[in-house]
Amino acid sequence: NAGVTQTPKFQVLKTGQSMTLQCAQDMNHNSMYWYRQDPGMGLRLIYYSASEGTTDKGEVPNGYNVSRLNKREFSLRLESAAPSQTSVYFCASSPTPDYEQYFGPGTRLTVT
Amino acid sequence: ELKVEQNPLFLSMQEGKNYTIYCNYSTTSDRLYWYRQDPGKSLESLFVLLSNGAVKQEGRLMASLDTKARLSTLHITAAVHDLSATYFCAVDFTSGTYKYIFGTGTRLKVLA
Questions:
Q1: What's the gap in Å between the CA of A95 and the closest CA on chain B?
Q2: What average pLDDT does the structure give for chain A?
């Protein structure tokens, strides 16, 4: 039981490049989330998926898109990376939205 | 505006001492969560508080929720070095739409 896994662990992009961050969970959870963590700002919700087939914007969605590929997988895409998107990205899942969330190990992204 | 504020932001304390971390939030919510993050690591759920007056305890940590005051506390009893970490509270502001807002975190350092 791996829990929540994320790939890659580290990534360096040049401004304007695109990439997709992958997230998968093996706990049969309905809800999945993407956050970014910046120094001194806690975590901010980018997008979430309450259940398979639905996605919705969180607090800071601009510059990102998501896909809930199936119940297990929830990907985050940066179409045209900007230095302001340099951050640590965490994926999380929960059985239901009012339950605690389980976090993946994070992806450290640097945009130069 | 939806806001979650924690204080203090930084806390350095001696082993064996007691202290309390405060989490204030701006609008009505019945669901509050506490998480722990070790440096360079992911987040781990500590407590889920789902109603007014809820109190949860695990080891040297005790969390409580007062929804009327929009306040949660995380009390540390007889701190030990292993409790050194950053502690976050998170509030779910909108039942059913999962606007999940994290506080900025309290960085705790317990000195031997």
A1: 13
A2: 94
> Cβ contact (<8 Å) for B99 and A31?
no
Q: What would the pLDDT profile of B21-48 be if each residue is shown by its tens digit?
A: 999 998 888 789 999 999 989 999 999 9
By CB atoms closer than 10 A (0-12, 13-18, 19+), residue B71 is middle
| Cα–Cα distance measured from residue B27 to residue B46, given in angstroms and rounded to the nearest whole number | 23
pLDDT of residue B29: 81
Q: How many residues does chain A have?
A: 112
- Test mutation, A56, A101, A108, chain B, max B CBs within 10 A: A101
From its phi and psi, is residue B69 left (phi > 0), alpha (psi between -120 and 50) or beta? alpha
Min distance A42 CA to chain B CA atoms (Å): 4
With 60 as the cut, is the pLDDT of residue B20 above it?
Answer: yes
Q: Evaluate whether B44 touches B37 at the Cβ level (below 8 Å).
A: yes
Residues of chain A in contact with residue B48, where contact means CB-CB under 8 angstroms, are 99-100
Token pair 């914007």 is found at A57
Any CB–CB contact under 8 A between B1 and chain A?
no
Residue-wise pLDDT for B48-76, tens only, equals 998 888 999 999 999 999 999 999 999 99
